[in-house]
Amino acid sequence: xxxRLRFLLDTNILIPLQDSMIALEPSLANFIRLCNAHxxxxxxxxxxxxxxxxxxxxxxxxxMLARLRQYGQLEPGPPCPWNTPxxxxxDACDNDILFALQRNxxxxxxxxxxxxxxxxxxxxxxxxxxxxxxxxEWLRRLHEPGAIQLPNxxxxxxxxxxxxxxxxxxxxxxxxxxxxDDWFRRKAREGRRAWIYRSDVGQDIDAICIYAxxxxxxxxxxxxxxxxxxxxxxxxxxxxxxxxxxxxxxxLRAAFKYATQHRCRSIFxxxxxxxxxxxxxxxxxxxxxxxxxxxxxGVYVKEHPLQPPDVQIEPFEYAxxxxxxxxxxxxxxxxxxxAATDLTG
Length: 345
Fold this sequence. Notes:
alpha/beta; Rossmann fold; Aminopeptidase; five-stranded parallel beta sheet; 12 helices; 12 strands; 36% helix; elongated
């Protein structure tokens, strides 16, 4: 399953979220957006609710307590041993929250309170306490590592292509996949993305590769499961007009970059070797192996290990199987390629 994080929000984070009179900082707004988009859980400690109840502004207090219900409340744990009768209410609240974090009640605490950060360092749990900007950057790295940029390749959301579904370009895909238009529009609503190629700017698309990350996916009729995250190339089509321009190679390069950034352990797709001869040959050249069948198609998988495999094979075969990993010892012959090489020719 995709990583689901539990974030404990300190009172000074909750107040801007609950008070409509306070404009949200961009980092906080984006952090909340990413949490909602990717299923991360936002929690508050019961001590934060008690802290809000001490607010002397009755209307604001009532408003914030009512809105607090949209977040999950952390289940109360054992009393914090750091609190004594002499501990101030504010310090007791901070201690309760930090004690819960120390007991692994959440992955991280989000707070702008410098005192809490200093206290966390003293307790040895500072690595789990984040300022909002750092938390936002964490989720950006996790979910938005950057668009894949390659010559003449665009990364787009499927909904931007809906008007082109009627083009002859999609006829062969539609013939191979009954219900393709409905599937395409359903995935467009989910925010599915694709890499596309246009030979002329602003013109109809000439090639497309729709992709998605899947986890512990059953990929063959024989019952094979790919463990962990895998990048699936759902639709892979290069039009006749641009055959010979190595567009397929560019799509695979985009897939390798994306899989590396998202720590996918494998890449796979379905292809019919009889009808898609060029694609099947291309896949084998780039280290994909047929591992079984899915309905009427073959299933091709390329291993994409997170760490370089420790295997003794010929350097070229090692790179073919495990790229972006490769052997680089002094006994391995290398070729220097100019950055100006035309990759689309």
